[in-house]
Amino acid sequence: MDHRVAIGIDVGGTKIAGALVDRNGNILRQETQPTLANESPESIHQRIADVINTLNEPTQPVSGIGISCPGPVNPFTGVALNAVNLGWKNYPLSAQLRPLLHNPSLPIVLQNDVNALALGEMIYGAAKGVSDFVYIAPGTGLGGGAVSSGRIITGAGGSAMEIGHIAVHRNGRPCRCGVNGCAEQYLSGNGLLAGAAEYGLFVDNQPPTTQDIIQLARNHHEIALRIMSDAAQALGEVMAMCAALLNPALFVIGGGIGLACFDLIVPEATRRLHQSVFPNLYSALTIVPAIASSSALGSAALVWHELDAQL
Ligand SMILES: [Zn+2]
């Protein structure tokens, strides 16, 4: 019986979600504080430290602290490179936190939030026991994470798997990143809303919410189905690129929009995938919804991923 536990912290734009998690993914205790992202970096990392210190019970054998945040990170130096919502640019989070912790000797592992969710799926969720898979998370935006031979791929600058900004329509909708036709402009909450605006979909003379669009698609509304088809085509295109590059055994679809639209978009996306790559790349491939329940769980998985790598 493995009695070790890890502390997982997900620093989002609105809340700092923390959990004390055992090796099997059981959440033993949770603690949340508001991020208050408009305050100074010092006050934000003090709140992160408060959450960690609350969860770090002396009676529990804590193995380490996993922290996830938006944007690219350097996991080796513990630096958040560009978390726009938090106002962090090249911010040495791990070094800033350590002096504030009750136990400053604990290992701290920092990772991008979507990569942490991917590892959460590998250690506790839908990709348990799978060493090669891709996690695709259409939420407000579109993020992804890839695990190859059991290791998360981070890339030279911490920006591997920025799948949201692969151009799937050369002359498509302009994106905030400066490119036109990015996958995120079709396959995300913002993408669904952009589709509604482009095709003139209204509910009670108002722009619809993403939930409105999904419900209308379930009721076979023509424009809503077109928006879903755009999302499905973007997903198929992204999966085809990932399949050709990484030859995964599994795609895990997470994110609020990805899970809510799974049955609406995956069949068409799968057809697009099959049209785009040769059969060896998809014949043994499965596509499943994510099941790990919390972002802090994914952050805790960072600790086990790191410790397992050291064995
Ligand atoms: Zn873009």
Tell me about this structure.
- The protein has 311 residues and is an alpha/beta fold.
- It has two domains: 5-113 and 303-309, 2-Layer Sandwich (Nucleotidyltransferase, domain 5); 126-289, 2-Layer Sandwich (Nucleotidyltransferase, domain 5), CATH 3.30.420.40.
- The chain is 36% helix and 23% strand.
- The chain contains nine helices and 13 strands.
- Helix 5 crosses helix 6.
- The chain is globular, with a radius of gyration of 20 Å.
- It starts with a strand and ends with a helix.
- The model has no long low-confidence stretch (mean pLDDT 94).
- Bound molecules: zinc ion.
Topology:
Layout: E1 5-11, E2 15-22, E3 27-34, H1 41-55, E4 62-69, E5 73-74, E6 79-83, E7 88-91, H2 93-97, E8 108-112, H3 113-124, E9 133-138, E10 142-148, E11 151-152, H4 189-199, H5 210-218, H6 222-246, E12 250-253, H7 256-260, H8 262-276, E13 286-289, H9 295-309
Parallel strand pairs: 1-4, 4-8, 9-12, 12-13
Antiparallel strand pairs: 1-2, 2-3, 5-6, 6-7, 9-10, 10-11
Number of strands: 13
**Which ligands are bound?**
zinc ion
As a whole number of angstroms, the C-alpha radius of gyration is: 20 Å
Poorly predicted tracts of residues: none
Terminal Cα span = 18 Å
Q: What is the count of structural domains?
A: 2
Count every helix, treating DSSP H or I runs of 4 or more residues as helices: 9
* Oligomeric state of the chains in view: single chain
Shape: globular
Q: What profile does the largest beta sheet have?
A: 5 strands, mixed
CATH topology call of the largest domain? Nucleotidyltransferase, domain 5
Order of helices and strands: EEEHEEEEHEHEEEHHHEHHEH
What is the CATH C-level name of the largest domain?
A: Alpha Beta
Across the major sheet, the strand order is 3-2-1-4-8
CATH superfamily of the largest domain: ATPase, nucleotide binding domain
- The percentage helix is 25-40%
Determine the structural class based on helices, strands and strand pairing. alpha/beta
Mean pLDDT: 94
Percentage of residues in DSSP E strands: 15-25%
CATH architecture descriptor of the largest domain: 2-Layer Sandwich
